[in-house]
Amino acid sequence: MPISDAARRTHEELFPGHVSTLARTDPELVECFDNFAFDEVLRHGSLDARTRLMVQLAALIACQAVGEYRVFDFLHATNDVLAERGVELPLPGQSTTTPETRYEQGLAVQKRIAGDERVEALYASAPEDEQHIQRYLSANCFGDHLTRDGLDVPTRELLTFAVLVALGGCDPQVKGHVAANLNVGNDRARLIGVLTQLIPFIGYPRTLNGLRALDEVSPAR
Fold first, then answer.
1. Could you please report the per-residue DSSP string of the chain?
2. What is the pTM of this model?
3. Carboxymuconolactone decarboxylase-like domain: which residues (predicted)?
4. For all residues of the chain together, what is the average pLDDT?
């Protein structure tokens, strides 16, 4: 998926002359991110550039992020380890969609994970001024990322569950992804196994919140 001209122009305005090292080591991620952050979302709404950048900066500060996207710092660390071990970058591409197919393929994966009725209800209940966010979920979150090779859908759902539990403050999303895990074959015992392994790293409060979400969606028999 090539970076669009609009995304290139926006990137140059924000970071004149800067060439990200991730464009060399992780080109597919940079393409997806730049097209989404510096082109697609900018087509919606009427925020002026100054206000847009201020609210984005405020959000990044709240996330305790140094880079424009929190995962970038971890990508750099991962790439350092790979380089030390002689792994040549970039790794082979794993994207399976194009700009023309990302929405339909993403919607199909979204329905597989969340269920047809749930996804259709999200679209049906979203007001007109929120419909674009539903399309972003289908095309970007699912189409650009969940359709990739490398990890199967059940594994991706376990990872999503772990991330949401560890973040805290995502209770509705945790419940949603408990249901999603069950939909793709990860049963209650497997989810309890994940939560058990997280205890040493995220502590008891967030682990117990995860257990509560699990019990509400899939009670013990």
1. -PPPHHHHHHHHHHSTT---THHHH-HHHHHHHHHIIIIIGGGSS---HHHHHHHHHHHHHHTT-SSSSTHHHHHHHHHHHHHHTT--SSPPP-----TTTHHHHHHHHHHHHH-HHHHHHHHHHS-GGGHHHHHHIIIIIIIIIIT-SSS-HHHHHHHHHHHHHHH-S-HHHHHHHHHHHHHTT--HHHHHHHHHHHHHHH-HHHHHHHHHHHHHHS---
2. 0.83
3. 133-216
4. 91
